[in-house]
Hints:
two-stranded antiparallel sheet; alpha/beta; 14% strand; 43% helix
Amino acid sequence: MEMKIKGAIFDLDGTLLDSMWVWEKVDADFLGGRGFEVPPDYQKAIAAMGFRETASYTIERFRLKEREDDIIREWNDMAARTYHEEVAVKPYVRELLEQMAGEGIRLGVATASYATLFEDCLKRNEIYSYFQAFTETKEVARGKGFPDIYIRAAEKIGCAPEECVVFEDLHQGIMAANEAGFYTVGVYEDKLAYSWGDIVRDADLAIRGFDELLLDVT
């Protein structure tokens, strides 16, 4: 990356963390336990939503007689053990974060997840301490289809959008960050391969792996 930046904001699931498979299993188990199969378009429909928006959408779509808070709690409980014990970072994540931190770049996270899931996971994978701030979609009014969370994350690390790069695997997130004036890097994720062409077209830079950004890869 040739541009000089002061801050970098990372998505977690599918970008830094190899965790998309966890949510596929949660969706299958949650809906299966209620007598439904996961519709082919379900994961794409909820991709840019935060937890509460996803819960509301799920209740309405499947006509569930349940409360949003109860559904969110169940999803968190279903995913917690896997995040705490199994979810790993993607290749070259630690090396990139170390390189950026060494260059004085301030690092933040913008995620639809909850700290109760990701904090222990990031600590176990020894990358938690690289970040100055964490921002969750529940802190802003709208999900990742809008720039709110990226703007808030930039504020937390003391940078303006034009001084920051956003790393995202979600096309809607790339478009939202573009709208706010961030430099955007689209990161390939197998589970979102259907949108890779859109990401390549719309991101300022598209990468298949973080090794593409390292100064030296041994």
